Each structure stands twice: as C-alpha cells, then as structure tokens.
C-alpha cells in the first residue's frame, strides 16, 4: 500500500492526537466526506474505528493499525484492521472520490488474491480505507535475509501468486499501479496477496487536496515511462503494471531496488528521456529472463500480457512449446513480419516454425529476442481486413468480389497445422486462406493504430475545468475488441477510453519529420508555442509521436531553446512547401528548417554585394576607352613539373598564374591584364 509495510515489528510511533497535532481538534466527524457517504454500503462509522498506532508510511499516505467495532443486539465484536489514511480531500472533489471508490469497492468484492477494501470512513478530517490486516509482506521478509534477496524457487512461487492476483484485479477493470515488495502481503499459509488496488489513480485524479497534491502515479523506482505524467505521456493500461511487476521481481532476486541511488528526477531522466531499463540479473531461467526483458519495453504496446507472464512463471525453463503461435521480428523491438506455429523446440531460443508461405516445410528460426507469443490471436467470428501496407494478399483471393483494403472478411477458423487463417467474404460462399500477418481486426472501418476524431457532443472528460486539463478530441486507437468496441488513447486522459465506432471519424495521422504550426484559429494553445513574428506562430518539426497522439516538437529554425516543445494534434496543421504561395513565404518555410540558413544566406548576400561593389569601383576608376592594342608582355616564367604515370615520366609546362590564390584574386579584384596595365 503505497510503500507501506504492514509488519508488526515496527515500533509504535505516535497516537492519533500526537500524529495529527493541531488538526486533531480542527477536523471532527462533520466533514463533507462523512455527510456525503453515510448512506453508502461501504461506509463505516468513524466511532466504530479506533486508530492504535502507525505501522507504515508511504507516498500515498500512512497505514495505521486499528480496531473495528461491529455491534449488534446479540454481540459486540472487535477485530484488528489496517487503515490507509488518505490526504485531505478538497470538498469539491469528495463526490468524485466517493463515486470512484464505490465502484472500486463493488468490483473488488470476492477477490481471493487481493486485499480488497472492507469500507471507507473518516478520522479527523481524513478519508480512511479499511482493509484486512496482514502480519507481514515480502518486503519485510527480504529485509531480514542475507543480501536482501530471495531464492529463485521462492520468487517463482510468489510470482505465480501475484500474477494471479493482478489478473483478478484486471478482470474488474482496475489497475494496480504501485507494485513493489512492500505491497505484496503474506497470509498465514505464506501465500502472496496483492495489497494494492489502484489507489495511486484514485489519489492522482483527486489531488486537488487541502494538502500537497500527489506528484506521481506510483513509486518512482517502479514506475513505467507512461506513469510519469500519464495525461501527457500515457495512457495507462494493463501493460503498465507489467513494468512495475518486473521491477519488483528484479529486486526480489537481486536484493537491490531498481534505480536505488537515484533521485526521483534522475529516475525520470533515465527512464523517460534516456529510455534506460533496469538491469536484469544474470543466470535466470530462460523463460524468466525472456519475459522480464519483454516487460521493460519502452512502448507499453510491446509488453506481454499477464497471461504470458503467468505462463513464464509456471514454466520458467521454457520459452515456447509445440503448438504456440509465434510472432517473428526482423530485429529486436521491430514490428511482427511473420506469424507461424511451433513444430519443434530445438533450444532455448531456436525453433522449427511452420509458416503459411512454406506449407509442409518448417523453417528453423533462432534469436529469442526476435520471437514472442502472438498476443492478439484472432478468434472465430471476428471481422478482419487487409492491411493497408499489403499491396496484394499472399493467397491471391482471385474471385473475391471487389477486393480492396476496405473490404471486410469474417474469420471462420484458424488452421493450427499450417498457420493459415480461414476467412469468408460477404457475397461469396467460398472460403479463403489468409496470411495472419497480412490482416488486422476491424470494427466499423477502424483498426488499431488509426487516428480518430471524437465527434461533437461526446464529452471525454466533463469534469476537467482548466484549459490545460482538457482532453484532446484527436486520439489513437489502441485496441479493437471482439465485441466491436474500440479503446482509444487521448492526450490529456490518463487511461484508455472505450467507445463505439460511430462515435469517431477518421483523422489524418501525423508522423515524425513533418513540419507543423498552430492553426490560425488557435488563440490559446494547450502548450506554450513560440511566435515567429507578432501575430504569426513559428513552425516546428515533429520528432516523436506518442501512443496517445501527443506530439514532441523541435524548432530547428531557432538557434536557442529549440528542443523540448509539445503540441496537441487537434491544434496543429501540416505545412508543405509545395502548398505555400509566394516566394517570401516559401523562403520563410526553408528558413525554419535550420537556424543556420539565415546566416548562410546573409553571408552569400554580403559576398554578392561586395563583388558587385568591386565591379562598380573598377568601372568608375578605369572607364572604357575603346579598343586598345595590348602591349607585348615578356614571356612568363615557365616552370616544369613531373607528371608520373604507369609507363613513363614527362614534363609539362605549369603556369603559376593559374594557382588557386591567383584565381581568388582574379575573382575579387579582376584581371589586371584586361586593364591594359
């Protein structure tokens, strides 16, 4: 729970009154939280909760040991609970907080591997989340071991417990976001229980508090790149938890916390800017090493699902097995270029794959860093279409009426013997073969990776008030589900947003290298943007496009402060030189391509003017006087030089007046011989 340890070995540090100090009398039981919550099923009366002493402290509040009093007409019952003391919530955010907690409370009921919340209350003006009390955590356990590390067999056993707990949480649509050893609790049977259920997101969205706002969406040492300002670099997804889980596993194995000697800002620089990854200990089983490396992919869309992670922890010595559908990449981190079925496993990173273009001829492929499970396998009944990058399908589809990239097909089945997808088209009774790497899931004409515009009238974030907090209406489709729904990432929104295809229309995609500027109708942009001249926005170049459509922009035409700018795709337009009218405007566009263009052009202009001035001076001082007979000049001194070739040595005359220095002098001052001197 937010960096907290539930271990009873921690000494008693303060009583309620000692801890809250002057706030103890100021905040009573009449807060807006209590007034709003008293009729909710998750509400626990403050008088029934007695705080004992603090047992943990973390970024998202402190954890206290408390007693909860349950009273009926027949009996009184007291039992120990753990209480998470949240920051002071501003009155105007109470309603939002309670609605989100109530949804979380209902979703988490009945989970076996998660320490789900038992209710919410308030003590001394602070919201409290009541949970089951556990005697210890994995963080407590490794702190007492030599080297602060667990044996591999224990890491694998705990890992299976934790992955199943995370999958339970994800099945309710909840992200953990703060996965670390201190949040992995241990029950009486030494089974690991997940002690985190999305509190960072709950805090982050309601951080307009009476105290300091929560600065991060997790604990810095375990945070994925998109967790650092998720509204800007997001979105958060289930794959975000894969990064934090892998960080905690590395710590459990090595005994060293990731980025242990760095400050939060230094971790931000390493993870987000430099794209560095935590070091994976050597000597791990191949399955574990492979899955941990995949969890540290910078782009969350390339990270494994928790189903893949569970498989790796249940079979740590295996990467793949016969019958697996495998994606093959030309290089590590690249796009999937082939999809095949494993026919035989030769070694840890070498397989015999059956590809659909070589039926009956399995191909040996090596390189575990280029291989991964096909995480988005098609299902029968889904609709697919030919990818735009495919000029013609491998199997021809001759006879299919009006074949085009927009024509949709229905998946009839997958052939597990030859790696072929069988599809049918409307208007044809025949079945057709398809290469799985050439087709993609489609819904309403939309596929993953499409840029879309949210149609008018659909409010993505109605609670956002400030202009810099509003959500962009242009986003990127993250996933097309089997039921036809699409998940879209929007700049300004922390998490993926699920909608139906009619709610969107396609937008023009943007890519790195394009030159853009703010539209003329944008008066107050989301991000700061430089002005070239009063009344005109400067032009920049896209250097990176984030998964949510956010744009990182440089201004190469500026000598200073060129890098580190941002833009909202909804507010910009692409600038192309062939579409610019006027010579001056075209030159201004060229000038924006690099800061050195203006000085170079200015220098050339100066040289041209200087040359023209010299010509004028020569004309003025030596006016034309008609045709003159040149005087005889003495014979020029002739030098000889040796010219050596492959056959002989000869001597040729060499005129010293044709040297480079003489040529430059002639260019600037003219040829003195032409003046009759």
TrEMBL record:
Keywords: ATP-binding, Nucleotide-binding
GO molecular function, a single term: protein kinase activity
Domain of life, source organism: Eukaryota
Stored Pfam families: PK_Tyr_Ser-Thr (PF07714)
Name of the protein in its database record: Protein kinase domain-containing protein
InterPro entries associated with the record: Kinase-like_dom_sf, OCM_Kinase, Prot_kinase_dom, Protein_kinase_ATP_BS, Ser-Thr/Tyr_kinase_cat_dom
Domain Protein kinase intervals: 49-320
Binding-site positions, ATP: 84
């Amino acid at each position: 729970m937010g960096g907290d340890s539930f271990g009873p070995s921690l000494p008693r540090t303060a009583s309620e009154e000692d801890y809250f100090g002057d706030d103890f009398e100021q905040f009573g039981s009449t807060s807006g939280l209590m007034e709003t919550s008293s009729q909710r099923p998750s509400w626990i009366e403050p008088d029934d909760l007695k705080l004992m002493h603090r047992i943990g402290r973390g970024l998202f509040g402190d954890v206290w040991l408390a007693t909860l009093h349950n009273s009926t007409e027949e009996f009184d019952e007291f039992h120990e609970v753990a209480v998470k003391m949240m920051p002071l919530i501003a009155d105007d955010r109470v309603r939002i907080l309670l609605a989100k907690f109530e949804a979380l409370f209902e979703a988490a009921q009945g989970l076996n591997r998660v320490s789900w919340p038992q209710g919410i209350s308030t003590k001394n003006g602070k919201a409290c989340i009541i949970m089951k009390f556990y005697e210890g955590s994995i963080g407590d356990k490794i702190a007492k071991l030599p080297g602060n590390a667990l044996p591999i067999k224990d890491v694998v056993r705990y890992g299976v417990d934790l992955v199943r707990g995370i999958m339970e949480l994800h099945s309710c649509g909840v992200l953990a976001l703060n996965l670390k050893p201190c949040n992995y609790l241990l029950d009486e049977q030494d089974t690991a229980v997940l002690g985190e259920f999305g509190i960072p997101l709950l805090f982050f969205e309601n951080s307009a508090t009476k105290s300091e706002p929560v600065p991060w969406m997790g604990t810095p040492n375990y945070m994925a790149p998109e967790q650092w300002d998720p509204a800007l670099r997001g979105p958060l997804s289930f794959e975000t938890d894969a990064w934090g889980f892998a960080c905690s596993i590395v710590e459990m194995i090595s005994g060293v916390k990731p980025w242990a000697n760095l400050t939060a800002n230094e971790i931000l620089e390493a993870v987000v800017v430099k794209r560095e990854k935590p070091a994976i200990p050597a000597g791990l089983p191949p399955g574990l090493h492979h899955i941990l490396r995949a969890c540290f992919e910078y782009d969350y869309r390339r990270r494994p699902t928790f189903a893949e992670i569970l498989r790796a922890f249940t079979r740590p010595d295996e990467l793949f097995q016969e019958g697996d559908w495998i994606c093959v990449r030309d290089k590590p981190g690249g796009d999937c270029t082939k999809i095949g079925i494993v026919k035989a496993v030769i070694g840890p990173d070498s397989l015999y794959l059956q590809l659909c273009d070589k039926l009956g001829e399995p191909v040996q492929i090596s390189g575990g860093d280029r291989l991964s499970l096909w995480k988005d396998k098609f299902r029968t009944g889904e609709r697919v279409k030919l990818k735009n990058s495919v000029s013609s399908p491998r199997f021809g589809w001759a006879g299919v009426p009006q074949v085009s990239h927009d024509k949709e097909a229905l998946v009839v089945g997958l052939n597990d013997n030859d790696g072929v997808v069988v599809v049918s088209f409307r208007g044809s009774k025949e079945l057709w073969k398809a290469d799985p790497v050439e087709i993609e899931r489609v819904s309403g004409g939309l596929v993953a990776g499409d840029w879309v515009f949210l149609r008018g009238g659909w409010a993505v974030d109605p609670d956002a008030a400030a202009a810099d907090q509003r959500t962009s209406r242009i986003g990127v489709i993250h996933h097309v589900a089997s039921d036809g729904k699409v998940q879209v990432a929007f700049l300004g929104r922390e998490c993926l947003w699920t909608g139906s295809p009619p709610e969107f229309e396609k937008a023009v995609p943007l890519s790195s290298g394009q030159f853009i500027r703010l539209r003329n109708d944008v008066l107050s942009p989301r991000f700061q943007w430089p002005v070239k001249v009063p009344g005109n926005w400067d032009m920049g170049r896209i250097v990176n496009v984030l998964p949510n459509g956010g744009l990182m922009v440089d201004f190469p035409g500026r000598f200073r402060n060129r890098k580190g700018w941002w833009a909202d795709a909804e507010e910009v337009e692409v600038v192309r030189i062939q579409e610019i009218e006027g010579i001056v405007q075209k030159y201004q566009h060229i000038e924006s391509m690099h800061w050195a263009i203006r000085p170079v052009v200015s220098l050339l202009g100066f040289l041209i003017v200087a040359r023209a001035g010299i010509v004028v001076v020569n004309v003025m001082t030596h006016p034309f006087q008609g045709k003159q007979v040149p005087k005889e000049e003495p014979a020029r001194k002739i030098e000889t030089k040796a010219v050596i070739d492959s056959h002989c040595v000869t001597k040729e005359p060499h005129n010293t007046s044709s040297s480079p220095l003489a040529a430059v002098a002639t260019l600037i001052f003219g040829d003195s011989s032409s003046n009759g001197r």
